[in-house]
Amino acid sequence: MRLSIIGGGQIGTSVARAAARSGKYRDISISEPDDDARKVLKELLAQDPATKRIEVTDSNKKAANRADIVVLATPIDQFAPVTHEIADSLKSGVAITDVGSIKQQSAAAILDNLPKGMAGRYVPAHPTVGAEGSGPKTSKPDMFDGGTIIVDTSTADASAATAITQLWEDVGGKPLGLTAGQHDKLYGTTSHLQHLVAFAATRALPSESTKLSEDQRSLYQMTRIADANKEMWLPIFEGNKSAIVESGAAYMDRLTSIKQALQSGDREGLTAILTKAHDFAKGFQAPEDDAVLVAARDTMRAPSDKAGDGLGLPMVLANVTALNAQRVEGEIKQPLA
């Protein structure tokens, strides 16, 4: 089976390495147009017997040619032009997926540029894992092990859905079925908002705070992801703005309540707010048979060495507001069968 990855960044390279490790994909190619990144990618793959046969090319069309599965692993604002570029190289039975952090806009960009009659061959996905940093050097062959992979099979052909679900299982992930709309609501309120809060928190700090070391754990945990790749996050924020703005308004209301309690000396009210947040953080043990809550829990508690979308407990108030009784305002009921 020929597997093609378009984009040699952290996630794309991790897919290639994990697929090679599985032994189920003997013909793997990965395209990376940037000369420096491609050089690093080639050197990295050559060091491992399991990956040294992976083809590295500067041509997206060449990588996609004859592929049975294509993984779009570029920044999300490149999905439209890249899909348009490779459209003529896709064979009729190909299964296509992506790794975008927002799904509705990503799906629209890809579907609008696929050849006529191929919409059912596309299966949106989002690996909810990752590591700090970017580029092929930060990739890991075990990146997806045990991690949740959101997969929307609701509009896909059965064979495409099977192929893509199997791919994510083969690289070590645990596929979870959500529609694109469910996904964007969940991650807009449990991940994207928290990233924006981290960016905002750094702007509220006095300049001397930059001299603090990582020993200042609360500050470090709350702001570390503000060092994230802005080219990646800008289109995510813009593409999922409705969910982020809605949950952001609720967060601001909660923050205003805290401010008012402090200003008025309302110790009882402040205690009630902090107690609720503390109890939520301490008691947020999602039942393992509730895949949606497990995904939300893992998003919020991802460790720093496999950061993904996680932020740690200093963001618990934002998470309490965002998750809204653990169900994102009741709109997410059950994962897809």
What does it look like?
With 337 residues, the protein is of the alpha/beta class. It folds into two domains: 176 residues, NAD(P)-binding Rossmann-like Domain (Rossmann fold, 3-Layer(aba) Sandwich), CATH 3.40.50; 148 residues, no CATH class. 49% of the residues lie in helices and 10% in strands. The chain is built from 13 helices and nine strands. A six-stranded parallel beta sheet has the order 3-2-1-4-5-6, sandwiched between helices. Strands 7-8-9 form a three-stranded mixed beta sheet, with helices on both faces. Strand 2, helix 2 and strand 3 form a beta-alpha-beta unit. The chain is elongated. The protein starts with a strand and ends in a 9-residue tail after the last helix.
Short structural summary:
With 337 residues, the chain is α/β, with parallel strands linked by helices. The protein has 13 helices and 9 strands.
What's the overall average pLDDT, rounded? 82
What's the SSE pattern?
EHEHEHEHEHEEEHEHHHHHHH
Summed up, the domain count is 2
Q: How many individual β-strands?
A: 9
CATH topology of the largest domain: Rossmann fold
Topology:
Blueprint: E1 2-6, H1 10-22, E2 27-31, H2 35-46, E3 55-57, H3 60-64, E4 69-72, H4 79-86, E5 95-98, H5 104-111, E6 122-123, E7 125-127, E8 148-151, H6 158-170, E9 174-177, H7 180-203, H8 217-223, H9 230-239, H10 241-264, H11 267-283, H12 291-301, H13 316-328
Parallel strand pairs: 1-2, 1-4, 2-3, 4-5, 5-6, 8-9
Antiparallel strand pairs: 7-8
Descriptors:
single chain, 337 residues, alpha/beta, Rossmann fold, 2 domains, six-stranded parallel beta sheet, 49% helix, disordered C terminus
